[in-house]
Fold this sequence. Notes:
The chain has about 140 residues and is mainly α. It has one domain. It is built from 2 helices and 2 strands; from the N terminus they run αββα. It has helices spanning about 5-50, 90-120; strands at about 70, 75. Strands 1-2 form a two-stranded antiparallel ribbon.
Amino acid sequence: MIRTTDLVSLGATAAETYDECDTAQTELNASFGVTFEAAKDNLLRDFKLAESEGMDLSCFQGSASRFKYNQFNTNIVVRITRIPTPHSKLEKLAARVEKLEAELKVAKLQLKHTAEQLVASGDCNELTDKVSLAFTRLKR
C-alpha cells in the first residue's frame, strides 16, 4: 500500500534530479544553444531564400540527402510543406470545413457541459483518465 510519505519522498528525489537536470540544461544552452540556434536560423533563412528563387532542393531530402554529415553523426531532416494556390473549389471546401469545425467545437462544449451536469447530479461518476506530472520552477 502506497503511503503519502512514500510519494513525498519519491517527489523529493524527482524534484532534486529535475533541479540538477534543468540547471545543467540551462548551462548547456547558454554555452552551445545560442550558437546552434543562430546557425540553424541562418541555414533555414538561406534554405527558404533558395526555395523562393526556384532552386531544386530535392537533393537535401530523403535517404540520399546532402545534409547527412557522418563526421558529426548528424542528419538534418528537411520538411517542405506546400499549399495549393487559391481556387474557387478549394475556397468552398475550406468554408465548409470551417463551418464543420465550429459545429464540432460547439458539440464538444455541449458534451463537456452535459458530463459536468451528470456528475454534479450523481447520475454519472468520473473515472481517472490519466495522471501526469509537470515540473516547474518556483517563483522567488
